[in-house]
Amino acid sequence: MEARQKNAAAQVLGLAIGVVLLAASAAASIRFGFQTISWSDMMGAFTHYREDSMEQVIVRTARLPRALIAISVGASLALAGALMQAVTRNPLASPSVLGINQGASFAIVLAITVFGWSNGQMLVWVSFGGAFIAAAAAYVLGSLGRDGLSPLRVILGGSAIVALYSSATQGLLVRNENGLQDVMFWLAGSIAARDLQLLAMVIPYMIIGWAAAMILSPQLNILALGEELARGLGQRVGLIRLVAGFIVVLLAGGSVAVAGPIGLIGIIVPHIARYLAGQDHRWLLPYCAVYGAVLLLLADVLARFIIMPEEVPVGIMTSVIGAPFFIYIARRELRNR
Predict the structure, then answer these.
(1) Could you give the angle at which helices 196-223 and 237-259 cross, rounded to 10 degrees?
(2) In this structure, which of 60, 123, 138, 265 has its CB flanked by the most CB atoms within 10 Å?
(3) How far is CA 70 from CA 184, 224, 299, in A?
(4) Angle CA(108)–CA(114)–CA(115) in degrees, nearest 5?
(5) How far is it, in rounded angstroms, from Cα 50 to Cα 97?
(6) Which among 312, 251, 291 has a CA at the least distance from the CA of 15?
(7) With helix as H, strand as E and coil as C, how does the chain read?
(8) Per-residue pLDDT reduced to its tens digit, 18-71
(9) Alpha-carbon distance 251 to 86, whole Å?
């Protein structure tokens, strides 16, 4: 009993530290960039806003929306990765590895370059549709065979989906060079030059996904015991996977609609959260949400200084950060087999 209380206290402390880091990262995101904002102008933008102050205008129109988008997208992608790893029993599962981000991206590129759609609300639904089709295809490919869903087959199926949608996206851009500039920076994954109106379109779906993920967390603990044991305890495994897949589509599709395909957040953060919080998804998922937001905020701040005065798209930065981590996890899993 005493050990359990100490463990709970440590989990609360770790989450509290994460919240502090989140606040500090958000402040850094608002303050630092090509033009550093003073603390007085930062506070004044919220308490005594003046339109004749360029610094305060930058805070309200550019830096604050950017920070809020980074928080929302980082939390959503980390939660989506944790859910996918739980239901597939694969530590390498994430929206980017299984092709869900690429499916949403392809759908948006198709809508923009072929059909000429530019309405934000319409593109949000297009992104959800592309994410759903890619998720369904990855699940079907991963379930083929006598033994049903297999972690290895899920990764192989996801790799096929990634290759298919990436090639199709490049094909669209080659055939329609006029649309290349409209989507190329977005395809790299970026939260720059996005406004709060775009986030406002998807945040209701993200909030539904966040809440549903937390509600589902006890069922994920049972599923982690093994599929046969979960069925023996009365769990409807197929329904849990279906609900989790729907949540992933909401989170990943919404993230892509706002920021494009930002990769590897969904792989990195769940492993960090698992190290800090343990295997209990009731704690693991809140850790993922907080530390996912922190990671994307810090990656975005770092991306502003690499080639200043230009910026590196944050999707490239997360790939640079996450690639060694991905290789480490893959090698560890091979050693454990």
Answers:
(1) 160
(2) 265
(3) 20, 30, 10
(4) 80
(5) 45
(6) 291
(7) CHHHHHHHHHHHHHHHHHHHHHHHHHHHHHHCCCCCCCHHHHHHHHHCCCCCCHHHHHHHHHHHHHHHHHHHHHHHHHHHHHHHHHHHCCCCCCCCCCCHHHHHHHHHHHHHHCCCCCCHHHHHHHHHHHHHHHHHHHHHHHHCCCCCCCHHHHHHHHHHHHHHHHHHHHHHHHHCHHHHHHHHHHHCCCCCCCCHHHHHHHHHHHHHHHHHHHHHHHHHHHHCCCHHHHHHCCCCHHHHHHHHHHHHHHHHHHHHHHHCCCCCHHHHHHHHHHHHHCCCHHHHHHHHHHHHHHHHHHHHHHHCCCCCCCCCCHHHHHHHHHHHHHHHHHHHHHHHC
(8) 999 999 999 999 999 988 999 999 999 998 888 888 999 999 999 999 999 999
(9) 16
Residue at 232: amino acid letter: G
Lookup: tokens for 137: 């295809």
- Can you say whether residue 280 is alpha, beta or left, with left for phi > 0 and alpha for psi between -120 and 50 degrees? beta
pLDDT at 328 over 80: yes
Q: Which long-range contacts (CB under 8 A, 24 or more apart) does 221-226 make?
A: 221/279, 221/280, 221/281, 221/282, 223/86, 223/87, 224/86, 224/279, 224/281
Provide the residue ranges of all domains of the chain, joining segments of one domain with +.
16-45+54-336
Look-up: residue for tokens 């500090």?
Answer: 24
CATH classification number, 16-45+54-336, choose in 1.10.10.10, 1.10.3540.10, 1.10.3470.10, 2.130.10.150:
1.10.3470.10
